[in-house]
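This protein record is not my work; I was only asked to verify it. Would you go through it and say whether the fold makes sense for this chain? Here is the record exactly as it was handed to me.
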Amino acid sequence: MTEYTTHKPGQRYKSPDTRGTFEATGEKRPPKAGEFYLSGAIIEAYRASKDMTAPYLIARRVAATTGVRVIQSNYPAGIHGWEDVSEYPDTTRGRQDARRDLREYKTAQPDLMHRIISRRVPT
């Protein structure tokens, strides 16, 4: 049997019938009912509706993440460490709101240091 399914380690795949992102586990065997496997000319992840007999690359769901902007505050001496104050979506509007609020924090609390950081969080 010719092997047509190729994948790169760490590569992510979509599913035509299930929301989410998937990646290969590196295991090739017949999928059990409910497991995800990779298949197709354009490789996608599918859920096995029953135990299968043909071997496929087994896939697992990868936690989806989204970007956020976070305003953090700290005392000048750095005694307490940085604390999250506000969180915004990583969109144009979210970045504008974060910059506006950062100016307000600096004006209202001049004795503290403030910064904006980017962070990836699960969705």
